[in-house]
Amino acid sequence: MKRVRYIVLLMVCAMALTTSEICVNKVTAQPVAAPVVTTEQCQSVQPLAVVANPRAYLDKTITMSAKFDKFSTLGLDYKPAFKSSDDYISFLIKRDDSTYDIPLSEMKLFIKREEAEKFIDLKTNDEISITGKVFSDALGDAWVDVSKLTLVKKAPEKDGVK
């Protein structure tokens, strides 16, 4: 009797494995493309407006113009709004409400490292266009996952420095 039960159990397991293998072979993974964000879905904003009220822009895709300041590590690996320093680099833009060169550090901008490498030649004061999604308002700051960065205009050369 034990032997019959053992054989039946063995056959059920064999059928289950065979059936699941057939099902797995018939199912093919279909790649899922990321949704395309059109300009109509982006909200054009001023950087200072986002910094003044980041919660109002939370989970929204925004586009803005700014002057590039520098690449940075600001905000990376911060647990409440986590972006890994292995995968991302952050960058700063300039404040547009000051005559002095002050970075807008209240806005954390993150871009994938592979994408950032395309912009290695960006210099301070280059005019850029940024499209991204505000994914957090941790610390009362705007945390933006940048999906598109575009160089609009190179900054003028200073004293023969390129």
Notes on the structure:
- By secondary structure, the protein is of the alpha/beta class.
- Helix content is 22%, strand content 30%.
- The chain is built from three helices and six strands.
- The chain has a five-stranded mixed beta barrel.
- The longest helix has 25 residues, at 2-26.
- The protein starts with a helix and ends in a 9-residue tail after the last strand.
- 19% of the residues are buried.
Q: What does the secondary structure layout of this molecule look like, with pairings?
A:
Blueprint: H1 2-26, E1 43-44, H2 47-52, E2 61-72, E3 88-93, E4 107-112, H3 113-116, E5 127-136, E6 142-153
Parallel strand pairs: 1-2, 4-6
Antiparallel strand pairs: 2-3, 2-5, 3-4, 5-6
